[in-house]
Design goal:
Blueprint: H1 3-14, E1 19-20, E2 30-31, E3 35-41, E4 48-52, H2 53-65, E5 69-75, E6 79-84, H3 85-92, E7 98-103, E8 113-122, E9 126-130
Parallel strand pairs: 3-5
Antiparallel strand pairs: 1-2, 2-3, 4-8, 5-6, 6-9, 7-8
Amino acid sequence: MTEQDVLNIINKKFKTSFKLVSDEYSSYDAEEDRYILEIKNRRSYYQTKIIEIYKMVANYQKSQLLDKVFLYVVSDEKGIYVFNINKNIDDIVRLPVTKKHQPVNTDFGSDKKIIKLTYELDESIATIIKYG
């Protein structure tokens, strides 16, 4: 599923008007008048969804500067999970920090791995769009 596919589903379901950002170096993928949105397309299902702390903090701060809400979206084989980071930030920052050895960039052909600090978000705090 592409980022645009995810946006099409979200826009239809929630009557939003998300558009992909044109800046290829933006820390988030899409926006509309009320929200900024980062999308992660995963190949496999996991009950918890990983969010990189560095990017979460950067986008959370940007959302405040823009007077918007930061939504983190994960799609996988079972559905689309929409996390309202602004609404849940107090609970999220109390979660245990996990160190993950991950590629510098996913799907860009680099084998170099670095340690990324992450939180594991439980899908119970997400709005879920199930497939089918």
